[in-house]
Each structure stands twice: as C-alpha cells, then as structure tokens.
Amino acid sequence: MKKVKARWVSETEGMFGANVFGFAAMRRCLSVAAMRHLEGAAASGERLDAETAEAVAEAVREWALKRGATHYAHVFYPLNGQTAEKHDSLFAPTAEGKLVSAFSGKCLAGGESDGSSFPSGGLRTTFEARGVMGWDVRCPPYLVVNPDDPADVVLAIPSVFATAAGEALDEKTPLARSGRALAQQAQRVLSLLGVREGSVFANAGVEQEYFLIDRAFVRQRPDLAICGRTLLGARPPKGQEFADQYFGAIPERVKAYMLDFERELWRLGIAAQTRHNEAAPSQYEFVPCFDRDFMASDHNHVIMQVMQRVAEQHGLTCLLHEKPFAGVNGSGKHVNWSVHTGKRNLFKGGASPSENAPFLVFTAALVRAVHRYARLLRAVVAGAGNDHRLGAHEAPPAIISIFLGESLTTLFERLAMGEAAEPSGYDDRNRTSPFAYTGNKFEFRTVGASQSVSAPLTVLNTILAESLDVAAGALEKELGGGGATAAKRLQAARVVAGAFYRDHKAIVFNGDGYSESWKAEAKARGLPEIADSVEAYAAFNAPEHLALFEQYGVMSAREVNGRAEVYQDRYVKQIATESAVCLEMAEQQALPAIYRYQGDLAATAAALRTIGEKAHTGQLHKATALARTLEDTVESLRDIIGHRPDADTLPRQGAYCRDRVLPAMLAVRHAADAIETVVAENLWPLPKYREILFIQ
Description:
The protein is α+β, with helices and mostly antiparallel strands and 696 residues long. The protein folds into four domains: 18-170, Roll (Ubiquitin-like (UB roll)); 173-200 and 343-555, no CATH class; 206-340, Creatine Kinase, Chain A, domain 2 (2-Layer Sandwich), CATH 3.30.590.10; 571-694, Up-down Bundle (Four Helix Bundle (Hemerythrin (Met), subunit A)). It has 23 helices and 16 strands. The strands form three sheets. Strands 9, 10, 11, 12, 13, 14, 15 and 16 form an eight-stranded antiparallel β-sheet that branches. Strands 1, 2, 5, 6, 7 and 8 form a six-stranded mixed β-sheet that branches. α3 crosses α4 (50-66) and α14 packs across α16. The mean pLDDT is 91.
C-alpha cells in the first residue's frame, strides 16, 4: 500500500530554505568553473575573483527579482551586539529615464557604510567614517520578507565589517580567523595520530531562552520598554517554586506565536529542533539544529530578530534580557560546542582503543585550555545583564570549571597515573556547571540570552587551538622521528592526555556548583570567582591573552583592546540608562502613588473624627514612613548619578556604576516594592508581576 505523506509535512519540506539562495541553488545556475571558484573561496576564506563574483551576482539577482526583491543589504554584526544593515536599491535609472536592475559582482562582494557611529574602541576616530563590508562567501544570501507586506522584500547578504585597513569592527571576522587557527592545529595533532579525514571544523547548537509578555503591559512599564527588565516590582505570591511551568503544556497563544516564527525560520533554512516551557512563568526555550559555528552564530542573530518581530504581530513582546524579573530565573544561551572532521566527532570516544587516541588528546587539551584561560572565558560572557544571572542559584556560578562526569574523570585520573584506560560510559548532566561534557559535546552555559555567541565561540576555538599546538609538540616528542605504529600513537596520546589532565585537573569539578562549599574549594584550588563585569573585562588586556590572539592570527592587540573598551562602555551606558529610568519611575509613579494613598488614609481618619469615631492611624503612619524612605533613596540615587565620573577612564566609571549606582538603584527598588505591597490596588500605576507573568 502506497504511503501518503501528510499535507503539513509536504508543505514544510517545500517551505524549508525557500528564501535562501544556497550552494545547491547556485550549482543549478553557475558554470562548473564558477562553482569551483566559489567553493574554493568559501573553504579558504579568500575573496572571490571579479569574474566569479559577476557570475554569482547575476544568478542571485535573477533569483531575488523573481521573488519580488527591490533592495539588497549587507548584513553584519557590529560590536554593539546588534544586527546592522544598510538597504541599497537593486535598480538604477538609465539616461532614457528607465529603471534597470543594477546589481553587479562588485555590489555582491562588498560595500561601504558610514561606520563612524558604530562603537570601535579606538580602532577608528569619528572623522574616519568608512566601514567596509564584504560578503562572507561561506554564508548564502537570503530574502527577508515583511509578513505584513509581501511586496517588501530585501536581499540579505551575510557580511563581515572592517576598517579600511582591515581591522575587524565586527564579531564575525575574529570567529572566522579562530576557525582557521583551530583547523590548522587540529590537523597537526590528527596527522601525528595517523588520522587523515579532511577538514576540521567546530559545530555549535545554541539553545535560546526568552520571556513572552503581553505587549500592553510593556507599554505601561518604562523599565521594560527601555531597559528590557523591571527596575521596580514586588514579587508575586506565587513564582516558580512549584515548578509547574517547566515543560508544561504550552499556552495556545504562545504556541501560535511559536508556529509562526518557526515557519519564518524554516523559510530561512533554520530548522527548529525543540521548543518548551522553561522554569519561570512566561519563560520559554527554542533550540535549533546544530550547524557550523559561523552559521550557528549568524542564525542566532536571525532567530532573535525573527522572535522579536513575530512577537509584535501577536500582541506580545519577546524579552531577551538576562534578568527581566527579580525572584524568578533569568535567561541564557546554552552553547553546545563540538569539533569534527568530515567523518568523526572528536569529543566522542571511538569503538576501539586505536580510535580513542584523538578523543583523549582533544578532551584533555580542552581541560588544559579551560584551566589556563578561565578568566578569558568569564570575560567573554560579561555584561550588565548577565551579572544579575550568573551565580544566582539559577544559572552557572561565576567560577569557571569543567564537568567531565565520574566515568571520564576516572579515565583521565588513570591516564595521569600512567595506566592504560579507555572510555567506559558517560554520566548524567550537571546543570550547575558552566562548562559541562554531555556525551559528545561540551555545553557552555554562561552565555547571556541577549549576547552574540560569536565572541564565546571565538574564544573556545582559539584556546583549544593553543592547547592543540602544545599537544602537537608533546606528541612529536613522544613519537620521535620516523614512522609510528598505531599502538605507539595510542600510547603517545595516553601520555600527553594524562600529563595535561595531571597538570590542569584543578579545573574539573563534578559537584554542585551552587553550593557555598564550592566557593571555598574553588579558592583553595586557585580558581577565580569573578562576580561582576568590571573585574571580568580586565582579563581582555592581560598580556597572555593579547599574545594568545596575536599568535594565532585571531585578533591584533588593537582589536582586542578595542573590544574591551566597547564592552566596558556598553556596561557603563546600560547602567546609566537604567538608573535614569529607575529615578524617573520612582519620582513620577511610585511616589505619587504613596502620596495619594497617604491622602486617602488621612481623609478617612479626618472623616471618622468628624462623626466621633476613633481613627486608626497605624496604616497612615506606615505609609508615611515608606514615603520618607523612598524619598531618601531617590535623593541618594539622584546625588550619586550626578557625581558619576565623566571624563575618567572607563574602568573607573564601571567601578563607580557597580559600587555606587547599582546599590543606590537597589535601595530605591526595595523602598518602592514595599510601597507596592501596601498601597491600594487602584492607586498603583504599574502592571504587577502577577499580571505580567501569569496572564497569557
């Protein structure tokens, strides 16, 4: 009996990748020679030659015009953490007054933008306005279609962004360089181990957490609208303590939203793997399928844009801040990362002892890398939003460690003692670990929900490349000159892996990362606990980190310094914005509410006295005390904001924000939240947590 494919399956298959002009579509349009040049450029990272660029542009133009495109845009990712694009017309007027398509190879290959307003951290000055965009030929062009207006179609060209001198002004360029460094050093190790299986590359799968809130509530709350998180707000009677949200039935309104944004992602060639309710009320998670690291990073930017845009169409707001609501879990990205050849996952044990040699060396090299560069891993996930989440008993602690599980730990302990050992199985996951082995990959759990994953992936690739470089040298010493048998290679792998683990096992922790005892143990092991971004950012400019990036051609010292400056500046500006909004809300909403409540209570007491009844003034005295406390905290915050260093160094400004501004904001919040729990319901001007989080 012939099986009939379900209609929705057929529609989904036809929809998937429909708005992407990928290599398969290009092969149908380009000559064999042009396709060979294109694939070579994608593999090498070099620019297309002019002839091939012209051929590709002609094919892309015809495809885009048939689908209604009117403009094209080089899409890039500047250091502000956002997605940027500049739309240019696909058409140009002729001398006869007609419009003709004018998209050439030069247009496809690159363009220019006034880059003076993008943060650069001293890589350029304001009068140096040129920002150069170049098509990343590894990533295919795609169409962005406005669901509300099908005639609004833009051809998007994934691009890199740099100064005229070639210094990276984006997050994507260093990621590409780190991938090449990783491939080079990995090939050295594999060659010494007798493995020749083609190219080496990193894969990534990015789990994205987010909140969905009714847009009407966001419009009534300046903090959510401007800052993405609540600066005032008392905890509701019920939060997430019952764990009844986690993996529960998805509300119908939310499910309809999910279906719409997933369909849009399907058209862009992004496959949805998992969706579910998360731990906090109104919190959810989306997981795409794994992809090459650079595509996973690009796709995550697209995913965030699509999620937020489709939410607006459903009368919702998608919040990607790391901590939108006090008292419930915040949101992060769990970056699942692995390294592959064309035939094997190098973080997965083999079926035989000889096949385990690469697994042993690569895993031990990563243990070494995480131990040596723990501060750098912490720095690359720093941010004002993530500071509220890390170490808050809902997310990994601010201490970087690596979880291997008991089986792998026992394996490497035996290798460290000079014993022969093989993988014997894998253990449960550890959700309290910031960097956990999960069977065939490592899960970096400290990345914030709003952050680009490019920088974390860049660091992971680079630090592993450095450790593999050292491993290659150690293997060469063990193997000596001449040929080597499989047994000798396996023994050399065991020796090198055992030595790496013995020297760096302090970073391995399989216990409860939330426990207070771990903090004391980590300190005894010499592992740093970096609780805030101000301290974390200092790691970027450490001499050993500057040397690391320069040695492997990932970033120059100027490029690293520039990023450190941009990140610190963003931290200061974010807290400056939040403090201004907090002050405004306290003065214009919380204080008037308590004053009105005082007035109502006083009027009631006076009315009772006029009719000879005893007036109970306990609540009035309480309201008066609360008002005075809020007045005092508001005045203190205003004074602290007014004395923030302006012309001093960014680290000094950051320290002032951390040590003075944030505590003053928290004091205002505590005072306002106490008032919220006392004033009459009809007098409180802001939507409360119980409304925001529990009304779907």
